[in-house]
Amino acid sequence: MDDRKLKILAAVVDEYVRTGEPVGSKSISQLENINVSSATIRNDMAVLEQLGYLEQPHTSAGRVPTFKGYRLYIDELMTPHDLPEEEKRMLDEMLGDKDTPEELLVQNAATALTEITHCAAVVTNAAPRFSVISKVEVIPTGKRLYVILLITSSGSIKNKACRLEFDLSHEQLDFFTHYIEENLSGVSVDDLSEEMFDKMVAAVSAYMVSLSPLVKGICELSEDLRQQELTVSGSEKLLSCEELDKMEVVKFIEHKDGLSEMLENAFSGIQVKFSSENDSFAIGNSSLIVSKYRKGGKEAGSLGIIGPMRVDYKKIIPYVEYLTQKISALMDGDDDIINAPSDIQEP
Amino acid sequence: MDDRKLKILAAVVDEYVRTGEPVGSKSISQLENINVSSATIRNDMAVLEQLGYLEQPHTSAGRVPTFKGYRLYIDELMTPHDLPEEEKRMLDEMLGDKDTPEELLVQNAATALTEITHCAAVVTNAAPRFSVISKVEVIPTGKRLYVILLITSSGSIKNKACRLEFDLSHEQLDFFTHYIEENLSGVSVDDLSEEMFDKMVAAVSAYMVSLSPLVKGICELSEDLRQQELTVSGSEKLLSCEELDKMEVVKFIEHKDGLSEMLENAFSGIQVKFSSENDSFAIGNSSLIVSKYRKGGKEAGSLGIIGPMRVDYKKIIPYVEYLTQKISALMDGDDDIINAPSDIQEP
DNA sequence: CGTTAGCACTCTATCTCTCTGAGTGCTAAT
DNA sequence: ATTAGCACTCAGAGAGATAGAGTGCTAACG
Fold it and tell me: Which one-letter DSSP state was computed for residue A87?
């Protein structure tokens, strides 16, 4: 693999991304920074095809990058564009400032991304995993009916109705509320575990068996808290995208379960994943560009786009990168990005 | 329009629904309960075409029902199949029992419908519109931070965080909570209005200006309650349906706004609507089969399918009908359907 | 020895032409 | 009023024919 071959591969990807048509040797030879004849390029392209970086839709057509080709392009060959200052300013305006609620911040980023990229945006909220329980309330709302309210230091609120087998007296409710406050107040959401609740069930059962549904209710709510919420917005953009199978897109929109887990397990820094390398999003020929934002130095959530594999990586990656950095800063109460830019990482 | 012509129309619809091909006079003449020659049928079909009940894709093809033809068929000619007991039992199992949460009940019905009909299912949740406010709580959760909790008699719970400009004293909070309880407790969700809240803002402002964000918060929550949520599931089925225009389906999936209103304004009982008669769902050649389920005797939500106009009405209508009846029963805590079957109504 | 010009070859996409058969409308007979 | 018979129509399938983009290979070149 000499330098020229890499240059040709990059040119093929660029050209294919630009036009959407299979790229022939002639059109490559006419590019500015290529100074060899089409015959030479043909030879090189044949090698690139043998190595699995390019492929032909049919014998007499031009070449198209394989996912392996894209991978090499993204990881080694491409240099992302610089984001001009005015673009940054525009993004800043769309995002909001440090007083914007976190949820809205992420939402705004998603909107910005769909508008700019014409792809679907994927965001996960800043999971309250790293926050602590600040309040637990149990409110009687009817005959043997109670509502549990769980509030975290980051402002997440979860509620759940709960039916008991008996009505609780004022003292019993007081006892329970106190017990719970004592055991959960200030506990990190991430530290909440099934075992912990099992112990609590055992403890309150000694006092009164019928309280255990309440503990179980709280346990379920805490699971909700630990779970990160994934939102895909602008997914209609994918439907108007020719190279994606509409059936697969619709199926994906309806159940996007696998993605959440994948995002959580991803490395930090900008990531590009292809559906062919990964079975969490089964849209053929699609790619996922994501990055994680941080809050208080810890990874809090993800942000990115899903689009066709043939997407302008050079252009989009800087947007995703800038948005995650900016969101991280805003969530920490800074108005400007402080730390150094992150590197592109292998998957 | 003599009897034989109606019989022929019904036969054409049945045959077209079965095969999907334009129906010729010969295939009709070969049916069991038709005892006239193809020439006679040809004459009758020509009349039916002139009257607008049938049409020809092209001169030398068979006939296809127009939407007017379907309309007559559905309203007058067709006799829906009876749902066999085992099918009913299967549906019962898929739905759940009276302890199944309402939301899940409706969800399960949607899943059942998509599986059985291979069409998209449309459901609206049991809007809490007809229930009353049973409890309003304001809970301090931090510096100038409060959580509002709104609970209805039907068990819907909504919450919202609210930031005030000052911290409230214990008395102030008590005053406010009492005031709200007095004004909202027992009020029907449907009766809550902007003006009502405007008045309340004015009243509490006299006492303390900074309380108004709380009232506004409650107002927003009440709007949430009034809103009915429309869910379309299994819409990928529509994409694999040849007679529907994929573009239109995609557009519909993107914004299904009009449908919600239409469902709300619909009559009770089984309804069949065609896109050509209606502009709330602009998928050409599609039809909507819905019925409303009831809760406590009042219409609570809708349930049905969207599919091609060429759909097996005889088969599907009983399913939709049974499901709405069963859901109505389950929501009222009965395990079996009690009241008489409803009639088919004109739109 | 790498590079290039030249050329034969391949394969898709498109157009036209023809043929077939299902289905019709009309007419005359029953 | 119904039916058999017949000429007519038209979409769709299949068969060439053609054009054009792009390739692989070979032989010549610096």
Answer: H
Other beta carbons less than 10 A from residue A304's beta carbon = 32
**Contact between B63 and B49 (Cβ < 8 Å):** yes
Per-residue pLDDT, B37: 95
pLDDT for position A347: 43
Element (DSSP H or E) covering residue B163: strand B157-163
d(CA B347, CA B345): 6
HEC assignment per residue over B22-76: CECHHHHHCCCCCCCCHHHHHHHHHHHHHCCCEECCCCCCCEEECHHHHHHHHHH
Average pLDDT value for chain A: 90
Q: How far is A341 from chain B (nearest CA, A)?
A: 35
Percentage above 90 pLDDT, chain B: 57
Nearest CA in chain A to B235: A250
* The predicted structure's pLDDT at residue B246: 84
* DSSP string covering B272-340: EEEGGG-SSS--TTEEEEEEEEEETTEEEEEEEEEEESSS-HHHHHHHHHHHHHHHHHHHTT-SS--SP
Per-residue pLDDT, averaged over A62-67, amounts to 96
Q: For residue range A82-113, what is the model confidence (pLDDT) as tens digits?
A: 999 999 999 999 999 988 888 889 999 999 99
Q: Count of A–B CB contacts within 8 Å? A: 61
Residue among B137, B161, B236 whose CB faces A250 most closely:
B236
Interatomic CA distance for residues A317 and A304, integer angstroms: 9
Using alpha carbons only, give the angle B246, B242, B76 rounded to the nearest 5 degrees: 110
For residue B43, pLDDT beyond 80: yes
Q: What is the mean pLDDT of residues A110-124?
A: 96
Does the distance separating the beta carbons of B159 and A161 come in below 8 Å? no
Which pLDDT score, from 0 to 100, does residue B109 have? 97
Both tokens of B255, joined, read 């914004």
The stretch B315-343 carries a mean pLDDT of: 84
- Tell me the CA distances in angstroms from A251 to A232, A235, B97, one per residue in order: 13, 11, 29
pLDDT reading at B346 higher than 70: no
Chain A residues touching B135 at Cβ < 8 A:
139, 141
Strand order in the sheet with A286-295: A230-233, A120-124, A298-308, A286-295, A271-274
Residue lying closest to nucleotide C6, CA to C1':
A39
A36 CB and strand D closer than 7 A: no
The per-residue pLDDT for B205 is 84
B interface test, pick of A103, A141, A165, A220 with most B CB neighbours within 10 Å: A141
Chain A positions in Cβ-Cβ contact with residue B234 (cut-off 8 Å): 254
Q: Does nucleic acid strand D have an atom less than 7 angstroms from the CB of A61?
A: yes
B283-B285-B286 Cα angle (round to 5)? 60
Q: Are B231 and B110 in contact (CB under 8 A)?
A: yes
Q: Which of B139, B142, B253 sits opposite A250 (nearest CB)?
A: B253
Q: Quote the CA–CA distance of B189 and B226 in Å, as a whole number.
A: 7
Which member of A145, A155, A247 has the closest CB to residue B240?
A247
Structure tokens at B230: 């429309």
